[in-house]
Amino acid sequence: MPSPPPYQLRSGTEQDLPAILEIFNHEVRTTTSLYLQDPVTLANRKAWFDGLRDGGYPFIVATAREGEGGEEEEVVGYSTLNTFRDTLGFNTVEVSLYIHRDHRGRGLGHLLTREIIRLGKERGYHTIIAGICTENSASLSLYKSHGFREVGVFRESGFKSGRWMSTAFYQLML
Ligand SMILES: CC(C)(COP(=O)(O)OP(=O)(O)OC[C@H]1O[C@@H](n2cnc3c(N)ncnc32)[C@H](O)[C@@H]1OP(=O)(O)O)[C@@H](O)C(=O)NCCC(=O)NCCS
After folding, report:
1. Of 21, 45, 79, 156, whose Cβ has the fewest other Cβ atoms within 10 Å?
2. Which fold has domain 7-173?
3. Where are the domains of the chain?
């Protein structure tokens, strides 16, 4: 088995959005980690990016060097902290994390989670929420291992793949 490429973390930029779109839409099409029925557009991800930038929220990407001489940089995963009910005055952010399908199981989820928690503390947020489909055992296990604790389940809160999905909410106090 080839060894995994060395990964780098950096802040995400608008130029990363096409790669982010590809990762995101793959999840929409093939999994229940998102309940959306249809792929989104680049304009949708641009609006999302503008919200992150305007709110000063952390957005990090993981990159790998690709090509013969490793001259091309490819975005292979990302994580954000974003608003959670901000119009209601909650001092809370919600985490997102997506790893490209070809780069899973190599520690990138751990790497990005450690870094987004560090950034959350640095920015002075008080607590992070993770909303996870109860069928998503990889994500449940990952967040638990970083200290997130379950606070409740919204039963049948999304409909995907012909059935109702329940969503577990996990919380980390910073
Ligand atoms: C969940 C996800 C982020 C994990 O990323 P990853 O890079 O594969 O994870 P890592 O290799 O760093 O492994 C992190 C932990 O996740 C869990 N995990 C990863 N793959 C798993 C699998 N196939 N089955 C069960 N647990 C798994 C384990 O707890 C693992 O820790 P360990 O190896 O120390 O036991 C990735 O599978 C993904 O992007 N999934 C689709 C999108 C998604 O579900 N996002 C979260 C939405 S809430």
Report:
1. 156
2. Aminopeptidase (3.40.630)
3. 7-173
